[in-house]
Write a structure and sequence with these properties.
The protein is of the alpha+beta class. The protein has three domains: 33-128, FlgT, N-terminal domain (Dodecin subunit-like), CATH 3.30.1660.40; 137-272, Rossmann fold; 285-363, Alpha-Beta Plaits (2-Layer Sandwich), CATH 3.30.70. The protein has helices at residues 2-22, 49-72, 76-83, 115-128, 152-160, 185-194, 252-272, 295-305, 334-343, and strands at residues 33-43, 90-101, 104-114, 137-145, 167-168, 197-209, 219-231, 237-249, 285-290, 312-319, 322-328, 349-354, 358-363. The protein has a five-stranded mixed β-sheet. The chain has a five-stranded mixed β-sheet with strand order 10-11-9-13-12. A hairpin with a 5-residue loop joins strand 7 (219-231) and strand 8 (237-249). The longest helix has 24 residues, at 49-72. It is flat, with a radius of gyration of 29 Å.
Length: 365
């Protein structure tokens, strides 16, 4: 009798273990394998078609990885780095079509990309080239004039503004076209706000000859710079300062370069002491969207999310139709973020919840 009970006990234990093993674990990694259809091109090899075909397929697989990586990163160097080893991120692929086009050979493939590996690969790239954590982006507009003028003040100012509390973005609108007039301060503030910048640094730096150098062979130059820092959202003046620097060199231009650079160094050091009170603390929340149904809809969502006017937004993960973003919104009100996304919605989004830490949608497309 005891042996029978013991046997049933062992059998029950084995059945329980088997049942537990067949249940999906909550800790298991969700599937992140997504099909991406792309084209690839290669030079047509008259002597060996296989060479052309293989080269075109390699190009297509590289394009598939770079297209997927582009959803998670906006850094071209990070994306290109992953594209160099496409087989590390593609589990399999299917050749859909192949044909000669003049001197080229084109293929169309459906590559099954492992997005979880893409995010891990990008994380490694980001850690190698990470910028310091900042509260927000900033725009720097410097108007240099006089002997040696160029980018001397701005180079010194950016290099010496210690603390890593702001990152100066290289906005294309900061540089005026050769024949166009410089933008007004009001225009610069409007563009800063529209670009998601938190602060607008506006500088006028003028280098002036301080005396004739014909007798000594040296040309003294004095530089005077004036700085104004504005809150981009409201246009409110937060800080202003001025600095002066002198330089002496064998040419007026060389003296001007030195004076402008020195003025930028001094201004940066003094501005750094007051920067903490100008920079707002960063606020982040999670944006979660469920039931997307594929990477094509994820691309649409990413395009919509990039237009929200947030200080920063990044796609953290995508698996089983669920996308997770980290957003640093312009406003701390989660309802405002939700409304902004719904106004440009193409996916039939429905708001499930909006708290101070997370906004959740489901897609019905």
């Amino acid at each position: 009798m005891k042996k029978t009970v013991k046997r049933y006990g062992v059998l029950f234990t084995l059945v329980s273990v088997f049942a537990a093993c067949t249940q999906p674990s909550r800790l298991a990694v969700k599937s992140s394998l997504e099909p991406v259809e792309v084209s690839g091109l290669a030079d047509f090899n008259e002597k060996d078609l296989a060479v052309s075909k293989n080269a075109a397929i390699s190009d297509a697989l590289k394009n598939a990885v770079e297209e997927a990586a582009g959803l998670f990163s906006g850094e071209p160097s990070e994306i290109a780095a992953l594209g160099k080893t496409p087989h590390s991120y593609i589990r399999k692929y299917k050749l859909l079509s192949a044909a000669r086009e003049g001197g080229l050979y084109r293929v169309r493939v459906r590559a099954y990309v492992e997005l979880s590996k893409i995010t891990v690969g990008l994380r490694g790239q980001t850690q190698a080239t990470a910028r310091p954590a900042v509260a927000g982006k900033a725009a720097l507009k410097v108007l240099e004039s006089g002997p040696g003028s160029g980018d001397n003040f701005s180079d010194a100012f950016k290099k010496n503004l210690a603390g890593g509390q702001v990152v100066f973005e290289d906005y294309s609108w900061l540089k005026a076209a050769p024949s166009a007039p410089e933008k007004t301060l009001a225009e610069l503030l409007s563009l800063s706000r529209d670009s998601g910048a938190e602060l607008m640094f506006y500088v006028r730096a003028e280098a002036r000859p301080a005396g004739a150098g014909l007798a000594t062979g040296f040309y003294p130059v004095n530089c005077e710079a004036k700085l104004e820092v504005y809150d981009a959202a409201s246009g409110r003046l937060l800080f202003q300062d001025s600095s002066q620097a002198n330089a002496l060199d064998a040419s007026e231009s060389a003296s001007g370069v030195k004076a402008l650079y020195s003025a930028g160094e001094l201004m940066a050091q003094r501005t750094a002491l007051n920067l903490a009170r100008m920079v707002k603390k960063s606020f982040e929340l999670k944006l979660r969207v469920r039931n997307l149904g594929g990477i094509s809809n994820l691309k649409v969502l990413k395009r919509e999310a990039d237009k929200l006017g947030a200080k920063s937004i990044r796609l953290e993960s995508y698996s089983d139709g669920e996308a997770l973003f980290t957003v640093s919104p312009a406003s701390p009100d989660p309802q405002e973020l939700a409304s902004a996304l719904l106004r440009q919605d193409e996916l039939g989004l429905e708001l499930e919840s909006a708290t101070q830490t997370e906004v959740v949608f489901s897609a019905n497309r």
